[in-house]
Amino acid sequence: MRSARGIVLLLALVVACVPPSDPMSYRLDATGELWSSGEGALVLQEVRALYPEFFEEVLDPTLVREPDMRPLRRDLEFAPVDRRNFDALHALAIAYYEYNYQAESHRGGDLYLANSMLTARIVAVPWRAYGEVHDAGLRDAMLDFFEDAASGEKLGSATTAPRLAPIVGSLAKKEDDPARHARIERIASEIEARWPGPDYAR
Q1: Mean pLDDT, to the nearest integer, of 13-21?
Q2: Which DSSP string corresponds to 29-58?
Q3: In whole angstroms, what separates CA 88 from the centre of its chain?
Q4: pLDDT tens digits, residue range 147-200?
Q5: Which of these, 8, 48, 119, 190, has the minimum number of CB atoms within 10 Å of its CB?
Q6: Cβ pair 154, 148 in contact under 8 A
Q7: Which domain range does residue 160 map to?
Q8: Closest CA to 163 of 130, 188, 134
Q9: Of all helices (H) and strands (E), which one includes residue 189?
Q10: Tens digit of each residue's pLDDT (9 = 90 or more) over 26-37
Q11: For the chain, what percentages of helix, strand and coil (3-state, to nearest 5) are there?
């Protein structure tokens, strides 16, 4: 696990030679196991410059404390929606994957609970924001993040993905658009079908 962590951080510092996709969209779903591979390196470079203090804590595995998420929450819920909303979403997504990986790396150890709590606090920010913003593109991007996190592809996320089923499912109460409402139900159903039963039983 330590060597995998080193690979993650090394890749995160290298800007991949790939053309960036639409910045007004979720851009980490095609990076596979490592969020920092491919375009993920570009995304990190962009959002790290915007939230340096936040990432100073997120990317330091020796610091197990809650970073200040108020600037990200403000930017994610900003209206009218612009690039800053999507940058904040990506910053939160990276933090989610990092804290989740750290928690799973220390499963059964002293740092497991602390990092698990940080992961939960991170995912609560886009969950809350979904009910505060009504921009179709931003809501789609948030669902892209939840679907990506629940896919189990990102390093360390397979065992924690089942926890996202009720979180995603509860978004249906905040959604009036029939297509997105159906998508929310589909994502939650797919999580439950892929990993039946509580994740702690695994």
Answers
A1: 51
A2: TTSTT-TTSTHHHHHHHHHHHH-HHHHHHH
A3: 11
A4: 999 998 898 888 889 999 999 999 999 999 999 999 999 999 999 998 665 544
A5: 190
A6: yes
A7: 2-201
A8: 188
A9: helix 178-194
A10: 999 888 787 877
A11: 65, 0, 35
